[in-house]
Structures are given as C-alpha cells and as structure tokens.
Amino acid sequence: MESDQHFEQLKDIVKMYLPDDVSVDAIVVDSNFVKELNINSANLVDIVLDVEDAFGIRLENEDMDKMQTVQDALNIIAQKLQLKK
Amino acid sequence: MLIVNDIINKLPYTDPFLFVDEIDMVSDNAIEGRYTFKKDEFFYKGHFKEQPVTPGVILTECCAQIGLVCLGIHLLNSEEVGSRDFQVALSSSDMHFLLPVFPLETVIVKANKLYFRFNKLKCEVKMYNQETQLVCKGVLSGMIRNNNI
Predict the structure, then answer these.
(1) How many residue pairs from chains A and B have C-beta atoms closer than 8 A?
(2) Keywords in UniProt for this one (chain A) (predicted)?
(3) Scanning B56, B60, B68, B113, which has the fewest C-beta atoms within 10 Å of its C-beta?
(4) pLDDT value at position A17?
C-alpha cells in the first residue's frame, strides 16, 4: 500500500535524527516525535526539510504546528501529494 | 527595516558575554559584524595560565552571536512587524579553527544564510582577523522565535 511505503520512507528519515537512547523500533505510527522519540525542535525542522525533498512537497508553518506524531506527518504527506496531482 | 544598531540593542547578552561591537552589513541572506577582544576578558585569566589565548568556544560564541542571533533578529523583524521579545538556542555547531586569536585582536565574522525555516536558522560562518586571515569557519544552526506568537 502507498501509505506503508510512505511510512518506510519517513522512518528512514526519522531514524537519522533519533537520539542514541531511542531504538529505531520505537518509530511506529502513533509515536510522538518530541515526547516519545525525544527529537528536539531543531531536528524536527531537519526531518521536515528532508521530507520535503524526499516527497517533492512543501510544508507551511501550519503543517509544522500540526505535525506531532508520525501519523500526523503521514497525513500531511498524503494531503500534499494529493494536491500535487 | 531595522536600523543596524537596533540589532545590537536587541541582543539578549551583556558584559562579560556580549561578543558583538558592530554590524557592518546585514541583508536577508548574509551579515557581517566585528568584535575586538578586550585585554581583560574573563577567560584570559585561565586560558591559558599566563598565556592568554581566546578559547575556541568563545570564537564559536562570537560567530553565533553575529551569524545566528543578529541575523536572526533581522530576519524575524523582516517577517513580522513589531516583534520585541524572542528566544534563542544554539542547536548545532561544526567549527574548524585555523589560527589563534590573542587579546586586543579584532575579528570580523561573515555569515551566509543556508536556510531560515520553521524558526531554525542555519548559517555558514567564517571569522577573519585584522590581516584578513581566516581564523575559523564552520556551520552553525539555532532556533530563534518570537515569544508573542
């Protein structure tokens, strides 16, 4: 499924910014970037910039505010890709 | 458009941790500023014993105050009118040091914006001495945001 593929792509990006004490297995659809994956706000920006490049989309400040969990990110990616079509 | 001196007045630092004397140029993509290390800066007493040399962390701080914070203030004010109160935090630094800086030397910091998005400012910085020799260079990034949003 397309969303599974998006999740794998997103996971590959997120894992580069995980702190040493958080395992890659901790990245699941429900994970909260800041509270559960211990990603700081500066690295969350890096994730967004990598997501933009990987999916060929552009996120706005409102999208950033909404992006709290992996699922939120997947929703935003799907929505932006839909708009591109 | 902010007057250049206003940028320095808005800096959240003071003696003995203010490392900006002047801003010579600022635009939406770059900034240039300078600082002269005083003879009796607090760190010279211990770095090193009887042989004062400016610590690399202080050179990094000087680069960050000019390249990230001063430029960030300029960018925040271009984006949003009337912002006064803001917060800053250094998030990463990757610096290389090439020459020592002694007391009473003036350094010039030139920074180029790589990006400023979602409150994260990432810059390429270079510091030169009076002889225009490269003292240190690197990439710094930090978060800067207005408190009133």
Answers:
(1) 24
(2) Cytoplasm, Fatty acid biosynthesis, Fatty acid metabolism, Lipid biosynthesis, Lipid metabolism, Phosphopantetheine, Phosphoprotein
(3) B56
(4) 96
Q: How far is CA A3 from the centre of its chain?
A: 13
Of the pLDDT bands very low, low, confident and very high (cuts 50, 70, 90), residue B82 is low
Integer-rounded Cα Rg, in Å, for chain B is: 15
B132 pLDDT band (50/70/90 cuts)? very high
CB A24 within 8 A of CB B125: no
Read off the pTM. 0.90
Q: At what angle do helices A2-14 and A70-84 cross, to 10 degrees?
A: 120
Contact, B67 vs B140, CB < 8 A?
A: yes
Give the range of the structural domain holding residue B42, as residue numbers without chain letter: 4-146
Q: Where do the structural domains in chain A lie, given as residue ranges?
A: 2-84
Helices and strands (H, E) in chain B, number of each type: 3, 6
Strands B134-146 and B86-97: antiparallel
What DSSP state is assigned to residue B32?
E
Measured CA to CA, the distance from residue A34 to residue A55 in angstroms comes to 22
- Across B88-101, average pLDDT: 97
Non-local (6+) Cβ contacts of A69 within 8 A are A29, A30, A31, A32, A33
- Residue A18: which of A53, A52, A44, A57 has the closest Cα? A44
* A64 touches A24 (CB < 8 A): no
Continuous H helices in B11-132: 56-64, 71-79
Q: Does A41 contact chain B (CB < 8 Å)? A: yes
ipTM summary value: 0.86
Candidates B87, B92, B116, B118, partner chain A, best to mutate (most A CBs within 10 A): B118
